[in-house]
Write a structure and sequence with these properties.
Largest sheet: 8 strands, mixed
CATH topology of the largest domain: Rossmann fold
Radius of gyration: 23 Å
Oligomer: single chain
Order of helices and strands: EHEEEHEHEHEHEHHHHHHHH
Structural class: alpha/beta
CATH superfamily of the largest domain: NAD(P)-binding Rossmann-like Domain
Strand content: 15-25%
Distance between the termini: 56 Å
Number of helices: 13
Number of domains: 3
Number of strands: 8
Length: 277
Amino acid sequence: MTLPRVFVVGAGRAGRALAHAMRVAGVDVVGLHGRGEGIDITWGKFPSSLATATVVLVTVRDAELDGALSELAGASLSSEVVVLHASGSAEPAALDHLRALGHPCGTFHPLLPLTDPTRATEQLKHAWIGVDGDEDARAASRALAAAIGARVLEIPAGEKARYHAAAVFVSNFPVVLISVGARLLELAGVQDDSARGALGTLLTAAAQNALAMPPAQALTGPVVRGDVETVRAHLAALAETPEILELYRAMSREALPIAEQAGADSARLDELRRALS
């Protein structure tokens, strides 16, 4: 399949990272336009370069997405131009107008935190891209994903919010967990540098285990051991930080079904449920 000629609208970290990765992969990125780091950034000629693109990829923030797509609807795009956007959660109303004009539309959402455009080029080679939309848009997304070395995850119709929530759990919440763990160690008197280093090693090993084996084999700790005494000690120690205590209870309750699958003692699990309620 001939690679698309791409114009990227949106010059934040995601837009610049994707444009850079595509250019390195040999995709003809005919332009990039938007604001990044507080300044206007443009490659190619805007808006004239839009006319040479076969795919327009919109990477602006969700709050700006409908406006950016509405502007495209008023631009002089040929009807066969595919319009993709990089939001994992939004279902912009402006897509209906673009479809009425003949543009296949869809989602091209990297399942990857794009924080550094240069590093992202290598990271995207091992990433997955969430795609949905019209078939021509999906085909364009598959071609772009293949070009940068990524794989495709088809988002089931009507399930985008659940899909994005899953991505948030795995992408965003580990950062929260490290922050919470570091805070607890700080309260215990551990230096921040040591805390983050130790917790980072622990998180990396746990993630590797979680990816290498089923949850019932990967889960360690007091819940899967049915260690009621340790859990009660944790609850007592966290009483002074009620927001962390609430998080600990919620996460531990989610671990209970996994512990059950792992063959933990049922009487002990019942004790844990009562302690965590």
